[in-house]
Every structure is written in C-alpha cells, then in structure tokens.
C-alpha cells in the first residue's frame, strides 16, 4: 500500500492543477445539487421492533386519519393574578385562539379546553391540545409559525401563554460555537507549524471535504429521506478528522523535507507513510459509524452512513489534494524545525539547540524509564474518573430537560403546576380486541387492571374505532415522564396486558412519547454489546493487519474502553449529578441521554484509533528499521507526539464548541466527546500506550508465524519505499 500511495502522492504533486480542478468541480457539483434540490425537511421517525412503534402502526390501520404518531402541541393558558380561566374575557380569548389553531392543512384536530374539561381544579390554568397529521420532525415551518403567532395573540390579550409538545422541535443552532472551534483549530495549527500557509492547508481541505459531504447530503435528502438532522454528525466528525488527516500528512511532508529530500519526493513519501496511517485510521472511523446500523434505528443509521461518507471524502482529499496544494505552496512550506519569516524564521539558529530533544522525546524517555509508575497512575486515574458511570441512569430528554428560558419548559412547568407532574407524559394504551369474544368486556378488564396499578392518577374512558374491535385508553401517571416510577408503570401495564391476553385474546400495547422513549432506551441498551463486539472486533482484525501484532491491537482496544468509561463517568458527574453544572450551562440535571453510550463507543473508538495508528505506526516503523523496542517508542514520540497533541486539541476544540448549544442533547454530546478525546489522547495514547510497549519489549510485536504468512502485507511503515530508495542509491553509485 505504501508504494501505491507514494506514487499517488507524487502524481498529485506533479498534476496539481488537474487534481485541484477535480476537487473544485466536485465541490461545485455538490453545491449546485444542494441548491437545486428540494429543501431538506425532517426525516420520518420510526423505531422498528418496539411495542410503542407496533401500537402506532396498529392505530394507523384501525383508526384511519388519526395520525397517531403525528406531532402534538399543548397551548397552555394561565389567567392573570386574581382571575380565572372561566372568566368571560379570558374564555373568549381562549376560544378565539382555538379557532386560529384550527387553521392549516397539517392540523388534524384541536381540543377546546372547556369542552374537554382541560381546566385545572383551581381554574387558573387551562390548555388546548393540537394534533397534527405529520410528526414533529416533518412539520412545515409555516405551521410552526402559525402556532407561535396564535400563542402571541393570546399573550397580547393579557394571558400567560406557553407552548409545549414536540410540534416546536427544531434542529439546534450551533453555528457560532462551531466557528469558535475552527478558530481554536487555526491557532493550534499555526503554533504547530509556525507558518500561516502550512496551517491553512488542513483547514482549507477540511472545509472543502465537509462542504462536499454536507452538500451531497442536502442534495440527496429528499430521495433518501435523510432530513435536516443527518448533516449534524457529518459536520462534527468530518471537520475533526479532515483537519487531523491533513495535519498528519503535512507534518510528515515537513519531516521528509528536513531529511533533505526534494519536494516531490517528500510529498510522495508523506502520502506513502502518513497516508497509509490515514487510510487505516479512516477505515476504523467508517467501520464505527456504519456499524451504528446494528441498532436498527433508521435515523441513527442514516446519520452514521452520512458521516462515514464524509470521512471517506476527508481521506481522499488528504491523499490527493494535500500533496497538490503542497506543490502550489512550493518553498513557502518550510521543513520541520524551520519557521516562516513571520515567526522568526529569518534569524539564525542557536547551534547549541540543534540537538536538543523535543518535549515528546523527553516524555517518552521518562515513560520508558518508569513504565510501571506511569501505567498505574494512568489506569487508576481513569478508573477514578469512571466511578460515577456505575450510577448511570439512561433516558431520553423531554420538555422538562429544556432550559427554563424556552416556552416548552415553561409550558411543562405550568401543566405540572395545574394538573400534576405525570400530565406531561400521558400513556396511550391500545387494546386490540379483534380476536376477543367480547371486545367491550375485554377493554373494560384492561381499564380495571390499570386503575389498580401503582402511580396511576387518571384512566380515561375507552374510545373505540368504527369497527368496535380496537380501543384506546389514556393513562395519566402520578410521576414525571422521565422518572423510574413511570417506567415501572409502563412495564406494569404491559405485564397486566399479558395476563389479559391469555384470558381474552385481546392484545394490550402501550405507546405515546413516554413509552416510546422507554422502548428506545431499552433498544439502545440491548444493542450496545453486539455493537461493541462488531466494531471493536472488526477494528481489532484491521489493526492486526496494520501492526502485525496481537498484543498492540489488544492494548489499543482495552485502552479505548478505559477512556470511554472515564468519559461516561464525567458525563454522569456533570449532567446527572450536577457537578460543574453552572460552568457547563446545565440548567436541569437528569438521566443521561440513552443514545450517549453507544454514540460515544462508535465515534470515540474511530477517532481514538486515529491517534493509535499514527503514533504507533511511527514506533513500528522505527522497530522494523532496526531500532530496539524502547528506542522505537522514543522515536515514535519524537516524530508523532507533537502532531497527535495538536490533532487532539483541535478535535477537542471542535467538539467543545457544541457545549454552547441550548439543546441539552447537543451539549451532552459535545462535552462527552471532548472529554473522551482528552482522556484517550493524553492519558491512554500518550501515557498508557508507551508504558505498556516499554514493558512488553519485543513481545509487543509478536505474531504467530502461521498468521504472519496468512495476513496481507500492507506495508504501512513504508519498508517498500526504503528498499526502493536503497536500490536507487545503489544504481546511482554504479553509474558514478
């Protein structure tokens, strides 16, 4: 592989005008496609295999036009102090608002508070329920605007009005914080390279790669039902890896120049060596992202595949456009150790500092001398950080986790005040009595069973379909939607339904947003172990091919698990326990988002392997070329520590930018990924990895002979390039 990539790098360097033209054309084509494609709506949301989804599907069949999985909005009214919602003026305002809410092609129904007895016992709070024909993720902006305007008209009349439900759900705005992340990345690159031009190359290529990826997603959004949320993960991951991969190759190019090679040869060797590491690092990220499909949640699968496509584009750009741009830059990109004039490159070097070891060399030498102490300190430190993960509680965010500044959260609080905390999470029980001898009696049995369960506040009368074989019952819990008590109630209803089905042949299904959240959390929990086995197993096999070792990939996988557990512990401490909550802008603590563990496993594993591959391939390269194991570790750090440090800081900056989001879910993802990268890069890869390799010595690179013969030789270390170079030197000596 190294030889092929070497030739590709030289070709891209020589034919730089052609290569640059191809990528600019692709960016233009993707941009035109995105501009001409229909505006990306929000993709349909379904959770195959869950009871809640099965109930929604049944309702679509038995209650045509009901739009069981359609969006809902609760417009909550509160009377001014000393007044009641039943006062004539307030009642007239509400009735006028209900009339306004009924307009719109996507509105299925609006329930009048007075006809539906949706007024609190003290008469101060009332609400109107709005049902839509499509889900909250598919609502048109015009429909949402009409909802907001109707609420504002009621406010203008003197009432306190807030809007809850999923009708106002929107893609979180995080553009400003992303710009901050890019700015920090630019500063790190300038410090790393000591040159504005060299620092600009990774940023430019990363932005082009993300531009192509996101534009392609927008262009394909309508035919593939990708939706506007699909590009979020692609942007986050594509930007981070795009900068990192380009950084690896530019850094190696400068190192090759420092060894006296001409620029075309240096570009070829940079792509042949660092480019090989980029290919395999990219493959691990793609495996991790595509592997999200095992969860069988369509939206998550689409996000993973789209992000994987953006990573693939980032790899191709790093292998081709970077050497092309290096060709355009010419002598403006200095060899390693030299700085541009802007950074003092015109001054003479201090000859006494020429042989001074860099920080990476000094640190690696220390670790090689004290491997046991460093290993114990690293493992114990990560273990301590992981302790809170033992108290991990999973759930999905609802309006109760929104900031208090949002209308959804204020509506949630008003409903809790007027009707009780469980009112925000009603359970919809669907009774399929098609095969029961007496459908009405079976449904009555279900209602009586539910009334006898713990934490049930209200059970509404059953509503039958036209055929009289299916009924819906609304159950109001006594506890808030995200509580463990409500989850126990859902399981209790389902257990009771199993007994009723055995007696009457009537099937009982529990659905609604609260039940759906519980089912999604369970589905994600059940998929975590298979996903971990798949992703880590495939990457383990890939790393065996790369490093031609058993113990090095095993150490990489175990170190990754340590960093993920420590990061989960940090997430629990901040978002569940409330440590440093004010500093992170966490207004409401609660369960950790159920998607977080599997999401972190997928994304962080792929990114962690970037550092593993780049850092350890330099060690493997030195070992293959004759250095002793301990010295190979030091050599790997001398060439790679600075670059890996810069790459990790950049990735942390990109992820940390999302902590500023007002959405608790996005905030949690940004914090979790930033902390995970910190633990993995600076504790696992920079401390635990060299300590373990120093302790293992030559055994670290052991591989059974039969397996060595069976594995393909991908030559990530560039041994083929060294052999080729030696042959060329021999031919030159013969000619002279």
Count the domains: 4
So, the CATH homologous superfamily of the largest domain?
Multidrug efflux transporter AcrB transmembrane domain
Q: Helix amount, in percent?
A: 55-70%
Overall 3D geometry? elongated
Q: Mean of the pLDDT scores?
A: 83
CATH class of the largest domain: Mainly Alpha
Rounded Rg: 30 Å
**Which architecture of the largest domain per CATH?**
Up-down Bundle
Q: Spans with pLDDT under 50 lasting ≥5 residues?
A: 346-354
Q: What's the β-strand tally?
A: 11
Subcellular location: Cell membrane
Family: Belongs to the resistance-nodulation-cell division (RND) (TC 2.A.6) family. MmpL subfamily.
Keywords: Cell membrane, Membrane, Transmembrane, Transmembrane helix
Transmembrane segments: 179-198, 203-221, 233-250, 271-294, 306-329, 372-392, 528-551, 558-580, 592-611, 643-662, 668-696
Describe the protein's architecture and organization:
It is a single chain. With 736 residues, the chain is α+β, with helices and mostly antiparallel strands. Helix 1 (2-14) packs across helix 10 (298-329), helix 8 (230-258) packs parallel to helix 10 (298-329) and helix 17 (551-576) runs antiparallel to helix 19 (596-624). The protein is elongated and about 90 Å long. It has helices at residues 2-14, 16-36, 51-62, 88-101, 141-156, 175-193, 196-224, 230-258, 263-290, 298-329, 359-369, 371-386, 407-419, 439-451, 484-504, 513-547, 551-576, 581-584, 596-624, 629-656, 664-696, 705-710, 719-735; strands at 72-78, 107-111, 125-132, 160-165, 394-395, 427-432, 456-459, 463-464, 470-477, 507-511, 592-593. 53% of the residues are buried. Mean pLDDT is 83; it is low at 346-354.
């Amino acid at each position: 592989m190294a030889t092929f990539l070497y030739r590709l790098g030289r070709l891209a360097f020589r034919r730089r005008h052609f290569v640059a033209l191809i990528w600019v054309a692709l960016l233009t084509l993707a941009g035109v496609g995105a501009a001409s494609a229909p505006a990306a709506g929000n993709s349909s949301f379904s959770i195959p295999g869950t009871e809640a989804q099965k109930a929604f599907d049944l309702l679509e069949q038995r209650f045509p036009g009901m739009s069981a999985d359609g969006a809902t909005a609760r417009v909550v009214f509160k009377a001014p102090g000393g007044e009641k919602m039943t006062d004539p003026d307030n009642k007239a305002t509400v009735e006028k608002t209900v009339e306004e809410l009924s307009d719109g092609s996507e509105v299925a129904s609006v329930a009048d508070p007075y006809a539906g007895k949706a007024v609190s016992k003290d008469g101060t709070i009332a609400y109107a329920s709005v049902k839509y024909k499509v889900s909250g993720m598919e609502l048109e902006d015009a429909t949402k605007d009409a909802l907001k305007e109707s609420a504002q008209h009621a406010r203008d009349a003197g009432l306190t009005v807030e809007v809850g439900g999923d009708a106002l759900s929107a893609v979180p705005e995080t553009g400003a914080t992303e710009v901050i992340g890019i700015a920090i990345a630019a500063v790190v690159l300038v410090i790393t390279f000591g040159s504005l031009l060299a620092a600009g190359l990774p940023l430019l290529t990363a932005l082009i790669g993300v531009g192509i990826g996101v534009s392609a997603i927008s262009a394909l959004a309508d035919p593939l039902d990708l939706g506007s949320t699909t590009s979020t993960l692609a942007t986050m991951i594509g930007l981070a890896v795009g900068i990192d991969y380009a950084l690896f190759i530019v850094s190696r190019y400068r190192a090759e120049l420092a060894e006296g090679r001409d620029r075309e040869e240096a570009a070829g060797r940079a792509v042949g060596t660092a480019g090989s590491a980029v290919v395999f690092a990219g493959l691990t990220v793609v495996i991790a992202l595509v592997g999200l499909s095992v969860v069988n949640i369509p939206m998550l699968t689409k996000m993973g595949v789209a992000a994987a496509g953006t990573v693939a584009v980032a790899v191709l750009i790093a292998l081709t456009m970077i050497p092309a741009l290096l060709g355009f830059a010419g002598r403006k990109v200095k060899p390693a150790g030299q700085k541009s004039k802007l950074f003092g490159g015109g001054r003479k070097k201090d000859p006494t500092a020429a042989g001074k070891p860099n920080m990476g060399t000094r640190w690696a030498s220390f670790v090689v001398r004290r491997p046991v102490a460093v290993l114990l300190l690293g493992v114990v430190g990560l273990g301590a950080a992981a302790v809170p993960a033992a108290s991990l509680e999973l759930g999905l965010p609802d309006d109760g986790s929104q900031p208090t500044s949002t209308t959804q959260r204020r509506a949630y609080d008003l409903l809790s005040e007027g009707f009780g905390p469980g009112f925000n999470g009603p359970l919809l029980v669907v009774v399929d009595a098609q095969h029961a001898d007496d459908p009405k009696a079976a449904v009555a049995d279900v209602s009586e069973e539910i009334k006898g369960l713990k934490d049930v506040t209200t059970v509404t009368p059953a509503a039958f379909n036209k055929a009289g074989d299916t009924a819906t019952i609304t159950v109001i819990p006594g506890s808030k939607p995200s509580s463990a008590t409500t989850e126990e109630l859902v399981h209790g209803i389902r257990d009771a339904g199993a007994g009723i089905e055995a007696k009457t042949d009537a099937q009982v299904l529990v659905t609604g947003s609260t039940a759906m959240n519980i089912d999604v959390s369970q589905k994600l929990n059940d998929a975590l172990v298979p996903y971990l086995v798949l992703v880590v197993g495939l990457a383990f096999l890939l790393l065996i091919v790369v490093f031609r070792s058993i113990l090095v990939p095993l150490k990489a996988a175990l170190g990754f698990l340590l960093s993920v557990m420590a990061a989960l512990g940090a997430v629990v401490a901040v978002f569940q326990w409330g440590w440093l909550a004010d500093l992170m802008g966490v207004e409401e603590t609660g369960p950790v988002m159920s998607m977080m563990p599997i999401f972190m496993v997928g994304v962080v594993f792929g990114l962690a392997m970037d550092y593993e591959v780049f850092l350890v391939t330099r060690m493997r390269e030195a070992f293959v070329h004759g250095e002793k194991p301990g010295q190979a570790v030091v050599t790997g750090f001398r060439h790679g520590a600075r670059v890996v440090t810069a790459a990790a800081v950049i990735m942390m900056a990109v992820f940390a930018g999302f902590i500023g989001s007002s959405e608790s879910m996005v905030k949690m993802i940004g914090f979790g990924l930033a902390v995970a990268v910190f633990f993995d890069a600076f504790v696992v890869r920079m401390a635990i990895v060299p300590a373990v390799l120093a302790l293992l010595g030559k055994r670290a690179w052991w591989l059974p002979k039969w397996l060595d013969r069976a594995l393909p030789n991908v030559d990530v270390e560039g041994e083929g390039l060294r052999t080729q170079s030696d042959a060329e030197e021999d031919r030159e000596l013969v000619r002279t």
